[in-house]
Write a structure and sequence with these properties.
alpha/beta; homodimer; 17 strands; 11-stranded mixed sheet
Chain lengths: ~425, ~425
């Protein structure tokens, strides 16, 4: 029997894409892997959904648990989403000796350590290329292509919805709410946008990237996550005048003392860096390795097609090489690594204040920063023809978050400063 | 014995890099692959060269042939360059049951079909990640990550020397000769620059990428190759006014009738495309797959470090998975594919003429193009305050090369046109 038999759980956007693309690529995959690949069972809550993409009625089941125990299935492809049932299905499938392919970033971020340990015990593959950055083969590149490198840092634009919204705010001068409405109308944002715009989706992916880079799972509460909901167009405009573009960036780094930081927040990137030119729904991940230097991977990070490419690639990997591959992270732990708190992180900052238009204000602000040993690299105070308040924008040199926040609070308390400060972190890739 | 024993032929820039990076990464690679990796023999013409990077005298040999027959070597790493001896070494090593890693693009472009057939017969791995785009894992991504895709096109900036020269001409307004001199002074160009600037190095890499995309080897004389030696700064300037950047681009495409084109030439790229922002010595390869859409891979394409990352990655791959991996191209042939002649290729064109400044000239030029059914998409005729000749720049719609060249010859023969036309091809990624 030279057929790899797939049981697929879930037949929504991604599952439908996998089903649609498999048939026209079956011959190609047979040539390339030496195996026929057939989806023999599809488990869905609503059979009509699977029938709508052309799955024959006799391959549809509503009992997802049956995939794990079905002796006629070699690989379980988990595309249900959610974490509770997906976790149960993956664990049971591995235990029953099946390989597993999943796109479930939330589940891996939450239970990755447990599930990869289950795969190791079962000596079965647990592949997850589709969980980060859709069709971009970033997982394979980190695990295999760059295997001879210590990873110094990973910087990723890994949420297409946020990048679309920020791109429209930048290019079309829209405010956040307008760009969000447009993204929803265009199908680039979910009806409930919070998973994307509040940064949680990017944080799940960042946890997976961190596990690949450093070989251990960062706990969800060890990640710093800040979304784009409060971004104002005028800060994008001021930043551009200073030579920066605003992106929701996932930043993963290890310092010389093996202290790791994993954070997701709106970030100013120098316009000259390739990441600054990644626009619309595209994703890109820059990986800095100690041997290779900087590399960057770019492509569509979501959608039925790009994600199907990654899922089918994982299935083909198993078809060609069904043996268990002990392969780098997440199995290799950096045993001495610790995770930094946000207070310990060092960054540059963009600080916008609303100030009273009166002599001596800049001196007062600069004095506070000076007292906290935070240097100023540039200042913009645009001409404003109104008599209430004026914006003052400061670009700051490297400072520790704790020091910076202390200075920020003191500055906000000055009587010449009105309302809260706007803070954006700056990444110079130095 | 849990050590993978490497015999390395050549200890120049790349070999020296591999030697230097292995020791500090030995423990990391052991964790990640489960094996110790040791370079047990280094074959060099001049022992002092290997001693200079720290190879102990007892591991140095001047007899490269001995690597193939040495029973204490598991993997031969061929970094000698050249094609005659390298071909003999690789063939003999495979035949003797050793895996082979090579960075030799010229050799693969010339003898790839024969060497991969030898690897298949011997059931040994022949890995070559370092042969294209240095540290960027493009070979692995094409063979494995994007395995579920038909490759529609590959566009690559794959010669760092040319990209450096063109970047300096663009950014600093240098002429070709000045930028070349600067590249030589900075170590970005060889003393004999012709392999790079005449496009041959890029053509070797294009042949390898084409073999991965389409599963067969294009004969060297089936590639169209044009270098950057004749590029003038003013054409870069005119192109920028039209919204394009000039790059030496390798273009690999298959059309619906399985006709393949493989060409390397100076190419105008729309400024909005990510490839246009790839500057300096960096390389980037855009791959368009029928499922995944557009992806792009970016990084350092040359140099001891980036190339060592790829060589060590291939060695680690063998350490982790020594079994022969039948894997996609180049072993899978598109049996019906044929290679287009340049005459059959369809492209857009940039055409610069020196014309006599007299009424009716544009009409005459346009009439010739019209007679060949070639449309004009835009025209620039800059104001020139001299009374000899003036430049006329035309951007043309899609035309077949044969038609275009016929029109070009007629235009050059017009009495109002002085001297030869300047022609640059334009890629719109449509």
């Amino acid at each position: 029997m030279n057929t790899l038999r797939i049981g697929m759980a879930g037949c929504g956007t991604v599952g439908g894409g996998v089903w649609r693309h498999l048939a026209p690529h079956a011959e190609l995959l047979r040539q390339r892997t030496g195996k026929d690949i057939a989806i023999t069972k599809v488990a869905v809550r609503t059979p009509a959904k699977a029938q709508a993409v052309g799955v024959p009625a006799d391959r549809i089941t509503t009992d997802w648990r049956s995939l794990a125990s079905d002796p006629d299935i070699d690989v379980v492809v988990e595309l249900m989403g959610g974490t509770k049932e997906a976790r149960e299905l993956i664990a049971a499938s591995l235990k029953a000796g099946k390989h597993v392919v999943t796109a479930n970033k939330a589940l891996l971020a939450e239970c990755g350590a447990e599930l990869f340990e289950a795969a190791r015990r079962a000596q079965r593959q647990l592949l997850f290329e589709a969980s980060v950055a859709g069709g971009i083969p970033i997982i394979k590149s980190l695990r295999e292509g760059l295997i001879a490198n210590r990873i110094l840092s990973v910087h990723g634009i890994i949420n297409g919805t946020c990048n679309y919204i920020l791109t429209r705010m930048t290019g079309q001068g829209l405010e956040y709410a307008e760009a969000l409405a447009e993204a929803k109308a265009g199908g680039y944002a979910e009806a409930d946008e919070s998973l994307d715009v509040d940064g949680h989706d990017a944080a799940h992916k960042a946890a997976i990237l961190a596990s690949l880079a450093y070989g251990f799972w960062v706990e969800p509460d060890q990640l710093y996550v800040e979304g784009i909901r409060n971004v104002e167009r005028r800060d994008i405009d001021f930043a551009r005048k200073l030579g920066y573009e605003l992106k929701l960036l996932a930043i993963i780094k290890m310092d010389e003392r093996q202290a790791v930081e994993v954070r997701v927040h709106p970030t100013l990137i120098p316009r000259t860096h390739v990441l600054a030119s990644v626009s619309g729904v595209f994703n890109a991940i820059s990986v800095h390795g100690d041997v290779v230097g900087e590399t960057l991977f770019y492509g569509r990070g979501a959608g039925a097609d790009a994600t199907a490419s990654a899922v089918l690639g994982d299935i083909a990997e198993i078809a060609a090489h069904p043996e268990y591959r002990k392969c780098k992270a997440p199995e290799t732990a950096c045993l001495n690594a610790k995770v930094k708190t946000m207070d310990e992180v060092v960054s540059r900052y963009y600080l916008r204040l609303d100030i009273v238009d009166r002599p001596g204000v800049l001196a007062k602000v600069a004095a506070v920063l000076g007292a906290h040993a935070i240097g100023i690299s540039s200042v913009i105070q645009p001409e404003v023809h109104a008599n209430t308040s004026v914006p003052l924008i400061l670009m700051l040199h490297d400072a520790q978050e704790k020091q910076f926040q202390a200075a920020r609070r003191e500055i906000e308390a000055l009587d010449v400063v009105k309302g809260p400060a706007v803070v954006l972190r700056v990444e110079d890739f130095a």
